Amino acid sequence: MDEEYDVIVLGTGLTECILSGLLSVEGKKVLHMDRNDYYGGESASLNLTQFFRKFRPNQSPPADLGRDRDYAVDLIPKFIIASGELVKILVHTDVLRYLEFKQIAGSFVYKNGKISKVPSTEVEAARSPLMGLFEKYRARKFFEFLQGWKEEDPATHQGLNLDKDSMRKVYQHFGLEPGTQDFIGHALALYLDDDYINKPARETYERIVLYTTSMARWGKSPYIYPLYGLGELPQSFARLSAIYGGTYMLDKPIDEIVLNKDGSFAGVRSGSETVRAKMVIGDPSYFGAGKAAEDGKLRVVEDGKVVRAICILKHPIPGTDESDSVQIIIPQNQVNRRNDIYIAMVSSTHKVCADHIYVAIVSTIVETSAPENEIQPGLHLLGSIYDKFVTVSPIYTPVADGKQDHIYITRSYDATSHFETVVEDVQDVFKRVMGKDLELKKRESDTEQ
Predict the structure, then answer these.
(1) How far apart are CA 1 and CA 360, in angstroms?
(2) pTM metric for this prediction
């Protein structure tokens, strides 16, 4: 391992794999290492044996769950927004050719003890059981305003300024009730909490437009999901990196981050071998994750925790029209919390489990000392649960931007139900490493060339 690289990437989570793919395309010489023997890191999809080995090492998978190879259970539940930034990266890099997608059948929101489909147009709002007759009229006017907004035409602005007026003022302008604000802010704009209400309305407007355009693209829901699980995404970007000369090493323990005398990055030691590079990019678990690193420097801090319950069901979730896949959002106000609860369910239709099995993951940001109790409202909606695996994971964020010591650390995966925040992290790290913005444009594929 006496070869020198431009970049060493540690961890094969989706964020790291996208970055190694993009940097390889940019001509960087990349070495990618992971202590695990599978791709995906925290965002992996595991077969049944790997899954039980991770959560219950002393127990074999029950025979009635079917064949090992039928499973690809996600450790972190996220769907892809059809018109979102991740799709743009997949198109830009031509990684789409390695993947097949299926639509998520339904998007639901919880209100007053029951779940209903999320309305995203004035027609759906008019039919929705979420609102009374007069509120439907007001919601219709709100959606017409969003769809009719033209930046250059003040007549479409109704006296509102999206860059100055808060979302609270926009809601008040249309007289929308708190329950309606809940599903707009949390099920359409996909905010985790209510902090957005007092901020300028522009970002909320853009988030709702993203949701509605994604919905228009597919019809049933704005989400798509890769066949064989989310673990296919990092593997596909790893392939991209390899095509452009990237080197991968799985099952490689990382024993030390080697530093120069001035504290800057020098290389990585694995056993008796040390490999050198100009910089390192990696997930927080390789950099002390809350503890001081070799040089006594604190490089990452804990910024909250996420609780997730991976549940195996033998039936679809009740009240979702027998859907084979759904997202359900429980807005925080509905259950007296500060953060929303998310439910993501997929099934054998997505090649992630055996026939007649459904995998549902309930997650939220931890607010108390009893995390599992916090997801009870979500677990309650699932009906009878065959088996349940609960994890509590810290959310780590880097302390520094990495420009000084050439150590670039990514963020942990948050509780959001989509990949938009992951892409924000990718764009942020890419800009710090390359000194320029990531520009997404469709490259000519090899066949077109």
Answers:
(1) 43
(2) 0.88
